[in-house]
Amino acid sequence: MMTRFICLMLVTAVGVTTSKAQEFEGNDKETDQEFIYMNRYKRSSDTQDKCTYTFIVPQQRVTGAICVNSKEPEVLLENRVNKQELQLLNNELLKQKRQIETLQQLVEVDGGIVNEVKLLRKESRNMNSRVTQLYMQLLHEIIRKRDNALELSQLENKILNQTADMLQLASKYKDLEHKYQHLMSIANNQSMIIAQLEEHCQRMPSIKPLPQTPQPPHKVYQPPTYNRINNQISTNEIQSDQNLKVLPPTLPTMPAVTSIPTSTDKPSGPWRDCLQALEDGHDTSSIYLVKPENTNQLMQVWCDQRHDPGGWTVIQRRLDGSVNFFRNWETYKQGFGNIDGEYWLGLENIYWLTNQGNYKLLITMEDWSGRKVFAEYASFRLEPESEYYKLRLGRYNGNAGDSFTWHNGKQFTTLDRDHDVYTGNCAHYQKGGWWYNACAHSNLNGVWYRGGHYRSRYQDGVYWAEFRGGSYSLKKVVMMIRPNPNTFH
């Protein structure tokens, strides 16, 4: 580095010398001209009689030593030249010094930048390794959350299964409680009947039993169908007391009573339907014993004799949510619930009722604000079980809106028997049994929610889409049928 600096200084000195020589070039020219002029003047005065010749020689650039004026002392000239050269050298040295300082500053700055670049590269490597670690941690977290989601779904399924089992047990307990209450009421009724018979016998002391009274007519009141009923009782929850209601005609003391009719006696059934019971003078809404035509099937139904014009056979009722309607196929076939409360008459019973003549369907509904509407269909019947109790509906009339015709011609579907047209099982989503299409405009056998509007993953409430929509669970619903002779299948 020092060698390069010395060489640079020498080159600079040579350049300065050359420039200095160029500066003195003008002064030399003036001195030469004066010298030539003086010589020419002297010669012309001395030699006036002689011929003279003047030669003009072109001036050459001085490239060698510097010529100085002979008039000035050489020492002064040398001192002046040396001072000027020294001044120039000092200026050049200062300039070179400033350039060297600038170069040093640049070198220092470049070194700092290099160090910063090295630090940035190191930090970049560290950041890359950190990003890799974070990415691996993220993958582990994703895998762990996926495992947790699977465990959570398994727990939810277990909870749902246990909840379903608990609901089934609760419904069975309620059904057993209702059966017990029914049996108690029937036992009380039987006690009252016995007391009435004893009182009636005491009023007729003059009539004596004939020798032939205990004869075969008593066997007429015990047909083989009673055994069928007794077998049916074990599987049908709402008909647990049918055989007990049939027993009074089999009492051995009845012939004396039946042989003396009075003006106040009314037929005690069984009847074809509730309209026949009304025509026989039973105008009180209560439980009646019904035996449809073309079958030996006996059933207990609730007859609504108050709703104009009376004679309505109730096949379904929802009013307080006390009965679970999320049942299997066999339960919906036989029927369930409490006849004087919430109940379903049974698909088989509805089939026998609606196929003995022309029947119309009336559906009454009430929301939680007390508004009541109805939907009436001119004809209503079910196909047999071989057709999965396919629905047949007639013309609509009413103020509730028609949300049932869309289900016309559809088969009945339960959780264990999927007969709807949807790819899945509508009963699973609607939480009930119904003539589902894909899936429902009405779901009167759904979950009874209190308050109307409900929150659920699916539309599974007791709803009628044309009346308050699918997200509103109705407060009361009654489905009932009545003969309609003006309508034909």
UniProtKB/TrEMBL annotation:
It is found in: Secreted. PANTHER family: FIBRINOGEN ALPHA CHAIN. One of its GO terms (cellular component) is extracellular region. One of its GO terms (biological process) is blood coagulation. InterPro entries: FIB_ANG-like, Fibrinogen-like_C, Fibrinogen_a/b/g_C_1, Fibrinogen_a/b/g_C_dom, Fibrinogen_CS. Residues 265-485 form the Fibrinogen C-terminal domain. This is Angiopoietin-related protein 2. Residues 79-106 form a coiled coil. Keywords: Coiled coil, Disulfide bond, Glycoprotein, Secreted, Signal. Residues 1-21 form the signal peptide. The keyword Glycoprotein applies. The keyword tRNA-binding does not apply.
